[in-house]
């Protein structure tokens, strides 16, 4: 293990949505880091500009499914935050690819830690690995990957070292650069500023700000170092003070400047639309990737109430949210405000004229 003031953090998926929040929080809150190494298939070399006098930010391009790439990226690291995965509930990615990234990629990370002698590994799992909707390819593979991570805890390595692992299960992650919010905006613009709402006002889905997810990763890594017998081998739900609301209600609170309209749609109609979309996707799959946001699986996700508590993380490594709801909302709103309002206005005007 490096000197506690000279640690190298490897973040897989480091150039993605959560990876960028991990980078920011590590730079702001982790005084022991000397290097933050971002490993990803698609890299953004501009992230190296975040380097400071004390912390080097490096970017490594590679494929999580290629062991040699993973091992090379992990060489010299002290802590691994494994956040690389494919999140796909729209069937945009073949099942074999989802499995390869989420499961084989995790196997590669564990193997690299053991062979190199990296003692601390934190995995980004998902609340959906335990339900209530666990039949999607993404969540099946995430559940298998989480099991691999937790079973790897206490693996003996050369030199008398031991691998310590844990997994975090965030609720629906939101925040700056989240593609799902951007997709919601784009889809609503294309629909003339209208979005369809289900008559399920009591549906409540847990949400958590990406900055707080990143903060919990940092605290979990510290917990593995300071209390490995308590934190090692454990899974922790990751939540903050964000309100439990329906998917549409939560997103719409950030879209007020665009004057979007919620149109109530009977649940039976939405179910028929979801079945129709799945049928069209299946028929067109050989020649065209038809991947609408609404399908039977996403309808089940947004119509099932599910919330969690982070009490266990508070007890084991003193987690409390770094950002309160007001700041989470303000940061997200500032980003949403950069969306082109002219597009939304033009779409609504066009809809009225048609």
How would you summarize this macromolecular structure in one to three sentences?
By secondary structure, this protein is of the alpha/beta class. It has helices at 17-29, 67-74, 95-116, 137-151, 179-190, 210-226, 228-231, 247-252, 267-284, 296-302, 311-317, 325-336, 341-353; strands at residues 7-12, 33-40, 56-61, 79-82, 120-124, 155-156, 162-170, 172-174, 194-197, 207-209, 234-238, 261-264.
What does this structure look like?
Belongs to the 3-beta-HSD family. Residues 10-264 form the 3-beta hydroxysteroid dehydrogenase/isomerase domain. The protein has a domain at 7-178 and 207-243 and 307-328: Rossmann fold. β6 (155-156) and β7 (162-170) form a beta hairpin. The model has no long low-confidence stretch (mean pLDDT 90). Strands 1, 2, 3, 4, 5, 6, 7 and 11 form an eight-stranded mixed beta sheet that branches. The protein has a two-stranded parallel ribbon with strand order 8-10. It has a two-stranded parallel sheet with strand order 9-12. It has 13 helices and twelve strands. Helix content is 44%, strand content 17%. With 354 residues, the chain is an alpha/beta fold. The longest helix is centred in the first third of the chain and has 22 residues, at 95-116. The protein has helices at residues 17-29, 67-74, 95-116, 137-151, 179-190, 210-226, 228-231, 247-252, 267-284, 296-302, 311-317, 325-336, 341-353; strands at residues 7-12, 33-40, 56-61, 79-82, 120-124, 155-156, 162-170, 172-174, 194-197, 207-209, 234-238, 261-264. α1 (17-29) packs across α6 and α2 (67-74) crosses α3 (95-116).
């Amino acid at each position: 293990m490096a000197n506690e003031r000279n640690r190298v953090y490897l973040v897989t998926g480091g150039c993605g949505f959560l990876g960028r929040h991990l980078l920011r929080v590590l730079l702001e809150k982790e005084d022991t880091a000397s290097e933050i190494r971002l490993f990803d298939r698609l890299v953004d070399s501009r992230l190296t500009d975040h380097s400071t006098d004390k912390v080097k930010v490096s970017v490594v391009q590679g494929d999580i499914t290629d062991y040699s790439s993973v091992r090379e990226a992990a060489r010299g690291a002290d802590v691994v935050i494994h956040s690389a995965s494919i999140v796909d509930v729209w069937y945009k990615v073949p099942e074999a690819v989802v499995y390869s990234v989420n499961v084989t990629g995790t196997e590669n990370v564990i193997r690299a830690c053991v062979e190199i002698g990296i003692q601390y590994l934190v995995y980004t799992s998902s609340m959906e690995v335990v339900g209530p909707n666990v039949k999607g390819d993404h969540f099946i593979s995430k559940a298998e990957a989480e099991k691999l991570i937790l079973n790897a805890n206490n693996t003996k390595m050369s030199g008398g070292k031991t691998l310590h692992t844990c997994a975090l299960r965030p609720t629906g992650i939101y925040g700056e650069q989240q593609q799902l919010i951007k997709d919601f905006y784009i889809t609503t613009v294309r629909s003339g500023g209208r979005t369809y709402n289900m008559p399920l006002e009591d549906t409540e889905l847990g949400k958590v700000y990406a900055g707080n997810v990143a903060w919990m990763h940092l605290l979990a890594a510290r917990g593995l170092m300071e209390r490995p017998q308590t934190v090692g081998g454990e899974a922790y739900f990751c939540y903050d003070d964000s309100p439990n609301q329906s998917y549409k209600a939560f997103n719409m609170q950030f879209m007020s400047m665009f004057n979007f309209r919620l149109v109530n749609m009977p649940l039976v109609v939405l179910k028929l639309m979801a079945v129709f979309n799945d049928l069209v996707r299946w028929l067109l799959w050989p020649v065209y990737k038809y991947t609408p946001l609404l399908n039977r699986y996403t309808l089940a996700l947004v119509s099932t109430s599910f919330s969690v508590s982070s009490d266990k993380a508070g007890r084991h490594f003193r987690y409390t949210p770094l950002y309160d709801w007001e700041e989470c909302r303000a940061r997200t709103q500032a980003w949403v405000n950069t969306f082109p309002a002219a597009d939304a206005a033009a779409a609504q005007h066009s809809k009225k004229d048609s």
